[in-house]
Amino acid sequence: MGDYETVQVDWDGDRGVGTVTLDRPDALNALNDQIRTDVLAAMQELEAHNEDADGVALRVVVIEGAGNRAFSAGADIGGFSDESAGGSSDPGLYQFVREFPAPVVAKIDGYCLGGGFELSLACDFRFASESSRFGLPEVDLGLLPGAGAVQYITKLAGPGLAKEIAMTGEHFPPERMSDAEVIHDVYPDHEFDDAVEEFVTDLAGQAPLSLQALKESAEMATQTGLREGIAHDRTMFETLLSTEDFEEGAAAFNEDREPEFQGK
Ligand code: COA
Question: Helices 244-254 and 208-223: crossing angle, nearest 10°?
Fold first, then answer.
């Protein structure tokens, strides 16, 4: 894998799982321009595994933070002069993650603040260790979260919680986030790695073209009207009916065995 200044990339070809680790632990993995560029490049590099594959090689991407203190403490405060607050100068990364063909899992262990929280909101799944803390401290700087956190939390949990997080700037425990369905689950610290690993392994075994279509469908449901969304789903259903993976899924069901999907 490529050599990046601010991220580590790991590729598990057996499961088709790529891991991108935000790697500025001394700055609690704060997001500066370099790390945003590196995450994007690392994910593109992972996606390139599909080019030589017979089907879909990259099944799931995990994003996590290096060290044991933070997923990410948000935009790099030292770098605000380059307009990096939460990605307002670069919505590219957040949109790229949201539209990335494979599901992306945010593995949150520690502070998940500001633009870091927004990066997790761009992911498809958010899991947290119980010692994680969530917050949108931009208000303390006279700003607002620049990459849509208030919009997304409002859609996930309603305006009450979105305003509470963003207007107080306080740190919230993960249980509060999972109760409101802003994140998917919280695990005791000592179970966290295994629990996420198990989820990721299962997800990586699902039919990749189905996952891709489901991701598009869910994204569409947040952006467009019901009629347009249902039309999309209908079209995708017909497309998936003609895939080899559907044949494999049906055969595996009839033969009472686990399917082996190829993504074609
Ligand atoms: N940008 C740049 N550097 C950051 C950072 C950020 N968002 N968050 C933390 N760091 C750096 C600190 O400057 C410190 O660096 P130093 O050791 O060179 O002094 C290091 O990370 C550790 O942080 P520190 O503040 O000493 O740890 P703490 O345990 O006392 O507090 C936080 C942790 C997360 C509560 C605190 O760092 C914080 O509030 N960070 C800013 C969060 C923020 O406002 N993010 C959104 C910006 S829009």
Answer: 110
- Which residue's CA is the closest to the ligand 1 atom numbered 12? 27
Of 24, 28, 111, 140, the residue with max ligand 1 atoms within 8 A of its CB, to mutate for a pocket test, comes to: 28
210-260 residue pLDDT tens = 999 999 999 999 889 999 999 999 999 999 999 999 999 999 999 999 999
| pTM of the predicted protein model | 0.96
- Sheet holding 125-129: strands in order across? 7-12, 17-22, 60-65, 104-108, 125-129, 185-187
User: Where does the chain have alpha helices with state H?
Assistant: 33-47, 91-99, 114-122, 149-157, 159-168, 174-179, 189-204, 208-223, 226-241, 244-254
Question: Which residues carry out catalysis?
Answer: 118, 138
Task: Give pLDDT tens digits for 173-217.
Answer: 999 999 999 999 999 999 999 999 999 999 999 999 999 999 999
Q: How far is the CA of 10 from the centre of ligand 1 (A)?
A: 26
Does the beta carbon of 147 sit less than 6 angstroms from any atom of ligand 1? no
Residues in the chain: 264
